[in-house]
Amino acid sequence: MTTKPSYTPALRFPDFRNDGEWEVKRLGEIAESFTGLTYSPEQVVEKEGTLVLRSSNIKNGVLSFEDNVYVQMEIPERAITHIGDLLICVRNGSKNLIGKSAVITKEAENMAFGAFMTVLSAKEGVDQIFLNYLWQSDLVQNQILRNLGSTINQITNKDLSGYKVCVPPFSEQRRIAQALTALDELIAATNEKLEQMKAYKKGLMQKLFPAKGKKLPELRFKEFKKDGGWEEVPFGSIIKECKDVSKVENEDVLLSSAIEGVFLNSEIFTHQRGSSNIGYRKLRKNMLILSAQNLHLGNANVNLRFEHGLISPAYKIYEINNCFPEFLYHWIKKDSTKEFFFDATIEGASVCRRNVMWNKLYEQKISNPSFLEQRKIASCLSTMDDQINAYTEKVGLLGQYKKGLMQRMFPQNQMN
What we know:
The chain is elongated and about 70 Å long. By secondary structure, the protein is an alpha+beta fold. The protein folds into three domains: 19-168, DNA methylase specificity domains (Adenine-n6-DNA-methyltransferase TaqI, Chain A, domain 2), CATH 3.90.220; 171-218 and 369-416, Bipartite methylase S protein (Helix Hairpins); 231-368, Alpha-Beta Complex (Adenine-n6-DNA-methyltransferase TaqI, Chain A, domain 2). The chain has helices at 27-30, 128-136, 138-147, 157-162, 170-208, 265-268, 325-332, 335-342, 358-363, 371-409, and strands spanning 23-26, 31-35, 44-45, 50-53, 58-59, 62-63, 69-71, 86-89, 101-103, 112-113, 117-122, 164-167, 231-234, 239-242, 255-258, 261-264, 281-284, 288-291, 300-302, 308-311, 315-320, 345-347, 354-356, 365-368. It is built from ten helices and 24 strands. Strand 15 and strand 16 (261-264) form a beta hairpin. The model has no long low-confidence stretch (mean pLDDT 91). It has a four-stranded antiparallel β-sheet with strand order 2-11-8-9. The relative contact order is 0.12. Helices cover 32% and strands 21% of the residues.
């Protein structure tokens, strides 16, 4: 005997638990979709025209206005945005962008949206905010993935209107929308606090290290104010290259260095890069890592995380002398240090590649305070890093909680 699938979510508010199953409908029955604006290159202007929202304006589920296109033309009503409606990417060269969405905010009202975008607007009897969360649910997202072809990355109007969805009464829609909105507001507030802390640390770093051409930082701890200037020393005088390499396969755990830090190879890649790791450099804790290929982009790190490991020979590694490792770690992460590294490179075989002039790099001067002042600066900035990491983890946990909550608040049965 075949059991009839249930289209009731696992989690419901107490006052709706006896209301029966949610109603199965097609998306086209509960929402109207509007196709975007087609324009020619001749109609694109600088900033005097109408801003056209495209897939690049959707960043992590919210609207961003960093990559804008403006047009000078008459905009049809169907391609004008309204507050609360859902903007969806329905066609793109990258399959990962198909279905990505963002809610039209007040800042984006009365703008246009491009031909590869669609706006979804709730019909009468459907809560718009509930509709926006319904689009994010696994029930809809799984249907999007099933309908994407191997070569054509798009959601057609027929696909969109034909998606099967489950809908409760309006009052239950509203309660779900209110609960998830409150959670999103908490996530946004936490993320805003995180960004404020990052910005504060960035500003603090600019004051705790001397500006270019200066011998003293703008801000010093009071116990060091009478210590005089920082000593300018060649960068090469505080580091010593280490050339120890692995002699057998898988001699140690594989590590990877990126601009953001040092990671296990498995944290970034699903496989080992290269057929063998014999000849990889032996890295220890508190060593400096410099990329021979991307140093001009800021790919440099001090390994404060791992006691030991192996890293690609595409990097040079160094012991750190006469400098506190945590101090050098924070100095490396300053925006102006990228310029320090860039100045020691020349253009390589292509415009995007630059070769490091190692002798020039080692000769360039770095400002060093006393060891005690180094420790104080490092301790201050590391404390801020701990707070930033705690908020980063909190944002991640809230995102996981929201994902789990939505899986319980929306039916999960597959619809064929």
